[in-house]
Every structure is written in C-alpha cells, then in structure tokens.
Design a protein that fits this description.
The structure is a single chain. The protein has about 180 residues and is mainly beta. It has one helix at about 5-15; strands at about 5, 35, 40-45, 50-60, 60-75, 75-85, 90-95, 105-110, 110-115, 120-130, 135-145, 150, 165. The protein contains 1 helix and 13 strands; from the N terminus they run βαββββββββββββ. The longest helix has 12 residues, at about 5-15. The chain is globular and about 55 Å long.
C-alpha cells in the first residue's frame, strides 16, 4: 500500500510514539521521531515501514536522510534503520555527542543502523567525520557506544581503494585557558 503525504499524518503520529535509537544525548530518546517523505509503505504486522523520496528523519539531534529509509520495529520498538542513497547522492547520518565530542557525521550509499548493538555500517563510498577527524573507505563500521571505527578499502583498486584517514593533532590549550 502506498500512502502519500496528505494521508500520512495519522500513520506517522503512531510511529512518533515508538521509542527510537539509543542516542548519544539522553534527551534525544525522549523526543518524537519526525519523518518527511514523498511516499510511505507501512506494514504494522511485519513491523516494516518504507519511506521514499528525499526522506528526512529526525529525533532530537539525530538526523538521517536518504532516497529510501526503511524502519524495522518489534513490539513497537525500532530495531534497525536502513537508509539508501541514489545516483544523486549518498545517505547521511548525524548526531550530536555529549560533552565536547562534537557531531558525528556519516555518509554511504547504504547506512545500516542496528539499534540494539549501537552499530552503524556505512557501505560504498563510506565516510565518517568527527571534530575534523575523517575516515574514508569502501565500508566503515562504527560503534556509537564504544566509539570504535573499523574501515576497509576495496582490494585491487590501488591508492583509490585504500582506507584514508585524517586525524587532527590535539589542540594546545591557550595560556588563558583554565584546566
């Protein structure tokens, strides 16, 4: 069943109450999920919702965009989110981290977020950035809770297929800064 924007409000209202991802900021978990798209196919029995057409999904400081976003739920709780880009661009994920950790930004033609394990998998032309540090490769796995990165290049692609990293030096404190 395809549901277009005028008829989507009632269905989305139910989804907005669904607890979402384990966010970096505690207040994000208390925020409603907001989804904007051109069309939606929702199957409550299977726990699968597919949103198509310039999809923007937000909850608190977390934002996911893509041409298609698929949300999997079990017992009215989100278990997995898959965002897909298209020929015009990659899917995108961002969230504000607590303290001075800044914003995590991630790109890939496919982004798979497993809510239960706090894992984000970036596939094809993957990139992960935070506070100026950047990781690029064909596939990147990022653990949100542990903040670990596992990046892989594309074999037999020469220099362009290798993992590329830029790690910023630690900033020196100014003499006026207090420890």
């Amino acid at each position: 069943m395809t549901i277009y924007l005028p008829r989507m409000k009632a269905l989305i209202a139910g989804l907005l109450l669904v607890p979402f991802m384990a966010m970096a900021l505690p207040t994000d978990r208390q925020q409603p999920i907001k989804i904007n798209s051109d069309a939606a196919d929702i199957d409550n029995k299977k726990g699968v919702s597919v949103y198509r057409g310039d999809v923007v999904m937000t909850q608190g400081t977390t934002r996911i965009t893509g041409d298609i976003i698929t949300i999997y739920t079990k017992g009215r709780e989100v278990t997995k989110v898959i965002a897909q880009g298209n020929n015009k661009g990659r899917a995108y994920y961002e969230e504000l981290q607590p303290g001075e950790q800044g914003t995590v930004q991630a790109w890939g033609y496919t982004i798979r977020y497993d809510v239960n394990s706090d894992q984000i998998e970036l596939i094809k032309n993957a990139q992960l950035s935070q506070k100026g540090d950047t990781f690029k490769g064909e596939k990147i796995n990022y653990n949100l809770a542990q903040q670990t990165v596992n990046a892989k290049g594309t074999p037999n692609q020469g220099e362009s297929g290798r993992v590329q990293m830029v790690i910023q030096p630690k900033q020196k404190q100014s003499p006026d800064a207090k420890p």
